[in-house]
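thread from #wetlab-drylab

HS: before we spend reagent money on co-crystallization trials with adenosine-5'-triphosphate, can we at least see a predicted complex? here's what I'd submit
DV: go for it
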Amino acid sequence: MKFFKCLEADSIELAYGERKILQNIYLKMPLGEVTAILGRNGCGKSSLLQIIFGTLKPVFKSVRWDGRFVEFPFREHHLVRYLPQHPLTPPSLRVQEAFKWYDSVVDDSFGERWQVVKNKRLGELSGGERRFWETLLILFSPVQYVLLDEPFSHLSPIYVEQLKWLILSQKAQKGILITDHLYRDVLEIADQTYFLQNGTTYLLTNPLRDLMDRGYIPE
Ligand SMILES: Nc1ncnc2c1ncn2[C@@H]1O[C@H](COP(=O)(O)OP(=O)(O)OP(=O)(O)O)[C@@H](O)[C@H]1O
């Protein structure tokens, strides 16, 4: 039997003051697969990604890489990078410089769009264009895992399609954790999907049916 390496998030407890946000979490993110988290606004998805990345300190957590407990995953050499919901890069930086800075590789074969955009400053791009290139900055990083928090937000449908294709093209080399409210697009590329509700993760076995039953999408 073959065992695949994986990143695991287990027994996470998070509270903001008296308010419990996360309390019974288990996520298994195999290398070479896309793992998705869906859930209503405010259920704790972004907080969970930050805990897995290591920048948000919860009451308790066990984040393990290949079975080994990792306190600060973002400090581990080439382990993980995180795309937050907010802009990531200084607006004065040129796109090409940002890619160099992150050691992310988009070569000239990526096409005419790279030629057009590479010398522009990130602050000169539209909201959707900036989101697209910042997502690629993380996606093409030389790391084992990328955590993508709402990468489809602000993107027009053609960009969403391209991004889905690019995420799948990176799967051979990486583990990818994604959360986004464009659930149909997420389900299309996910190998497994968890639903986050009342602080607990549920692995979905029949995603569309389960999402209706849990009140995330209408009947
Ligand atoms: N620094 C903070 N202090 C207090 N409460 C917070 C803080 N950050 C987040 N929260 C609360 O914790 C809950 C979870 O927030 P989080 O951003 O993780 O949700 P989310 O599932 O990512 O939401 P969305 O889908 O809207 O992006 C929310 O109710 C939010 O108001």
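DV: The pocket of adenosine-5'-triphosphate is lined by residues 16, 21, 39, 41-47 (CB under 6 Å).
HS: ok that's useful, forwarding to the group
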